[in-house]
Amino acid sequence: MELTPLRYFVAIAKAGHLTRAAGTLGVTQPALSAAVQRLEAEVGADLLLRTGRGVELTEAGRAFLMHAEETLRAADATIRAVREVMGLERGSIRIGGGATAVAYLLPPVVSALRKKHQGLRFFVREAGSTDVARAVLTGELDLGIVTLPVAVPDAEGLVRVPLVEDELRLIVPPGHPLAPKPARSTATRKRNAAVGEFRWKDIASEPFVAFEAGTAVRSIVDRAAAGAGVTLNVVMELRSIESIKSMVGAGIGVALVSRFALEAGEGIACRDGKLSRSLVLIKRRDRAASPAAEAFEKELLTRVGRPLRR
Description:
Elements: H1 3-15, H2 18-25, H3 29-43, E1 48-51, E2 54-57, H4 59-85, H5 87-90, E3 92-97, H6 99-116, E4 121-126, H7 129-138, E5 143-147, E6 158-171, H8 186-189, E7 197-198, E8 207-211, H9 216-227, E9 233-238, H10 241-249, E10 255-258, E11 269-270, E12 276-284, H11 291-304
Parallel strand pairs: 3-4, 3-5, 7-11, 8-9
Antiparallel strand pairs: 1-2, 5-12, 6-10, 6-12
Helix pairs in contact: 1-2, 1-3, 1-4, 6-11
């Protein structure tokens, strides 16, 4: 049975009047009447009783209405399921992450998916790990890239998929005493190792350009410095990695940033202990991922999991 006659019948039953139902549906009253007549002929019973004020459901009509509504609900669910399967052609992905993820991890993933599925749309939110985790839990975001641990209420409702271990490295203004000497060979630059080392006491009195207080990276830096008995001389707080790098380049101070933000051979490693963090992909435990989100996750894991040339 076609679904259109069922939708017409349900609309008439709700309106209680053929003319009003026809206006709601955007069809003529004769066309609507003809559709009802064909439907009654098919089921073999009168479904509507015409009155001076409109129409009323017969007993058969009331029984038919209940099953018609169930059929339409099932049909709509089926259509939604089919559209989800087609999501890679017309779907959308909502993802959030911190400055490192948004600026350096996501662009190649989005680019690769766009080349494969040009109909996909992306909504990307840059925010701290806590805000991203909350947004994933509330359903505002499909996926998030955050730093462990995930310290939000109801965090057990999130699935954590390991992505990569990130290292924070010190960057200094040109000509700074801690500035590393250039790598001697191409092979050295490709080993993904920082050239040179520093100790916390070396930067205890240095002007420090920091990430905003409360961010995951700032917390890691503050804890490590405090553990070494050093209080950093923070002269500026920023969220953008590129802004931090620009300030350091202008001689404002020194800073610690992700290795993903640096070229091969750039950055100075901490001799007092490697400054590292675990980045994970998070998603709702109780919600099935759309085909678009699944494709995004697969592409992200493939690309981030490759050996890094930094």
